[in-house]
Backbone:
């Protein structure tokens, strides 16, 4: 399973990249705003800065909600760097844009997916990735991981190439569950990735190994 980090924070992206297990980055307008990145030029520069840090795909979201606007923005975004994947919202105009970009060989990530039907249409339109929001579904007492599993089944049934990118991942158990059901990608915060490394018995065991070594090598 590919690990993407869901942030626009350059320090966190650097830290995740340094860990050596990062496969890409996802951003959205809220994450960009959180970092105080405003204005078209700054936004474009920031995407470039992210691309310069990571080896993998970087999702950059369009703001337009009409077909022409999405196409214009997407075409500008892919000029920034070959790592850019154009993130398109799951709306009617977005489906048309997915189809357009797919015919031009431009990679896309269809975001704000909350149902299997949405994922099916996005795949038919040629999306490279679909982003079902696991955490936001769990927030409303709906099974987010269940949706990932359902989409994977549908994609397997028909041999779609679209990759399932489990988004809105909040904690390490979400990551494990995504891996169990076979999600192609997950995107989450650095804290969730780092939490995978932790176990109290590892800390206790290491402390004992080191103290025993010190006793014999004082
Ligand atoms: C998807 O790519 C979004 O950026 C993101 O995963 C949303 O996560 P949130 O629900 O934690 O805001």
Residues:
């Amino acid at each position: 399973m590919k690990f993407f980090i869901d942030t626009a924070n350059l320090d966190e992206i650097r830290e995740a990249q340094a860990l050596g297990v990062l496969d890409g980055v996802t951003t959205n307008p809220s994450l960009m705003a959180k970092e105080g990145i405003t204005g078209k030029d700054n936004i474009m520069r920031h995407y470039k800065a992210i691309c310069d840090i990571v080896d993998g795909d970087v999702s950059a979201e369009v703001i337009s909600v009409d077909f022409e606007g999405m196409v214009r923005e997407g075409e500008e975004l892919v000029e920034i760097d070959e790592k850019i994947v154009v993130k398109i919202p799951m709306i009617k105009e977005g489906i048309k844009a997915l189809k357009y970009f797919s015919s031009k060989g431009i990679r896309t990530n269809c975001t704000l997916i909350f149902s299997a039907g949405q994922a099916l249409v996005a795949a038919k339109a040629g999306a490279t990735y679909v982003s079902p929001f696991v955490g936001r579904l769990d927030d409303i007492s709906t099974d987010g991981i269940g949706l990932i599993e359902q989409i994977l089944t549908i994609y397997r049934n028909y041999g779609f190439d679209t990759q399932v990118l489990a988004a809105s991942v909040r904690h390490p158990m979400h990551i494990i569950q995504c891996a169990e059901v076979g999600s192609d990608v997950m995107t989450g915060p650095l804290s969730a990735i780092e939490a995978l490394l932790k176990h109290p018995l590892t800390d206790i065991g290491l402390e004992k190994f080191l103290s025993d070594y010190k006793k014999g090598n004082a």
